[in-house]
């Protein structure tokens, strides 16, 4: 009986952690926390990833995938004049501007 109770508690704990992880993983990105930029002529997601690499901690591929997912892009192509959100926190932008002044 005691062994069965231990198994029940262990299973319940694991189930609780898995459900918590699913809720956390499915939490939508709050776009208002991130920088929104207007795409300039000649910009690519790869170039933007390199341009802002000091302000995010993602690989180029992770940066590109994040931008595509969050902005609901159909592919990796971006168009001049388009506004997109990039994975750079607005607080990071403010810190960078303060350092550059």
UniProtKB/TrEMBL annotation:
Domain LysM: 35-86
Protein known as: LysM domain-containing protein
Coiled-coil ranges (or none): none
InterPro entries assigned: LysM (IPR018392), LysM_dom_sf (IPR036779)
One Pfam match: LysM
SUPFAM superfamilies named among the record's database cross-references: LysM domain
């Amino acid at each position: 009986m005691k062994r069965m109770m231990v198994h029940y508690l262990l299973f319940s704990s694991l189930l609780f952690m898995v459900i918590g992880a699913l809720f956390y993983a499915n939490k939508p990105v709050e776009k208002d926390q991130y920088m929104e930029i207007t795409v300039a002529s000649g910009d690519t997601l790869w170039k933007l990833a390199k341009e802002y690499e000091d302000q995010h901690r993602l690989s180029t591929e992770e940066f590109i995938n994040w931008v595509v997912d969050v902005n609901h892009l159909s592919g990796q192509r971006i168009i001049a004049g388009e506004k997109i959100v990039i994975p750079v926190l607005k607080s990071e932008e403010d810190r960078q501007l303060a350092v550059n002044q």
